[in-house]
Predict the structure.
Amino acid sequence: MDFCLVDEKNIKKFLEIGGKFLFTDTNYKDYTKGHLINSIHFPSACLRNTSFNFSDICVNDGMLPVQYIDNESIIKLFINARLYKKDYICVYGGKDDDVYACIFVLYTLHKFGFNKVYYLNYDWNLLSQTYITLEFPMWKKYKEDVFSIKNTSINPDEIYHLLQTKKYKILDVRSLTDYEGKTGVWMVKGHIPTAFNIFWKSLFVASNKNTDELIPTQKIIGINELKQKFKKYFNEKDKIIVYCNTGSEGSVAVFIMKFLFGWKNVKLLEKSFGCYQYLHQICPEFYPIVKIDK
């Protein structure tokens, strides 16, 4: 396996090399109703909690929701799940608005040193029943890994300095109305100055459901269509920062640029707009926010 997507054509090969699957849906009952052979329940929500954000620039502590738990706890999760850096690991699950959760788990694995990570680019419910089981896997326990955390992200204080240098381009993957400041889950609406907008849901094949809302399937759109979207604003030599509301949806764009395109200089603002807008309330001159009035 030398490509980062698993689908109905190569899933057999993935299993033959001993690949492990992680089912990332939050509801464990969905896992117990049936899951892929050799898969465990590893919900993306287990990586998140409320935590402090400290800013040297604003000199303030803030309690923010939906942030990464501490590194030691994440490593403990990997150890408890018997996930090893030598493993071939494929994430799956997620449907409709939650499909990004799979790729957020993949991003986290990569960040903590797992290099053989894959995304199931197919609706697993449509796979042959020969791949579906009710049984729980039995994975061998080996000597525990030594983890080293990759530099895959930036923090909000860093983005302040990067905005001054203008050496990075910024991508906002939230909806257009969130980007423009017409809607949004946070107190302050709008986007980080100079950011371009590509809605993360548009990176997946759309569902055929009869609705005006864009509903993604579990399959990413074709590589040529992806490149058209991204090359409108970026190229492989650019240094790029991606953000969303909490860091999860942004991992989709990071995955596409780094894993599918092979672009090296892409980082995720993991605390994302939730933290940025909080800092804006304290230090608006250092953390400006732009709205678009039409």
